[in-house]
Structure prediction request, 250 residues.
Amino acid sequence: MADTTLPAFNLPFMRLLATVISAREVAVVKDLADVIDVKDPAKGPLGPPTSQTVAEVKKLAEGQPVSVALGDAGADIKEKLCLAEEMVFSGADILKISVSFVSPKDAVAILKMLRNKVPPSVKIVSAAYSDDKKALITPFDLPDISKRAGIDGILIDTCYKNGRSVFDSMSVADLGAVMEKARGLRLMTALAGSINISHIKLAKDIRPDFLGVRSAITKSGNRGEEGLDPVFVQLLKDEISKIPAGAGSI
Prediction:
């Protein structure tokens, strides 16, 4: 089951959420990442990993919180709820799910069901994509939906992993406005989407609580290829740790 003693995460500086795709990558990030994220890029932007991978990562994380992607909410809500239970049993402390492709009403209902399905100690984060024109829910909608659903936080990410970052599809002003609204509702905030070290100066004006990275810390630059570079992880951690966060908590 998930760790019931998650840290409060009320630190004054931005924190690093580093994505791994296998347990073999954990050693590179466990002493630097504030949250170790697990997903399968082959299954989409928030592709769910296997429960075995989650269990292996949790074992090696040595107490670091583990977040797990559940994919996109849709008609398969019963499957998603079962998947959530499976991931929590395997060690997930935080669950992330995109609500971009359902109506706002359905998003609230799905998130409430998810909230009620797992223990209160497990944190629920809703996600919306900044770059998908077909989305029914945009990042601007996310804070109100998440607050109504009674969950813990929001994530703005990109759907299309084509090298374009979240800053290519939303302005710093718009991203900052969404984060500020979420903070006002006492929601944790996270930002991801092909972010690399050159974007750190932009993140300073947005002040998410967490900055999520994958491709920027890989040896190849390809999010789907295994292998992390400890130098890249350290550089990002050093830069992120200098930036005041929005003081959200999970």
Notes: The longest helix spans residues 77-90.
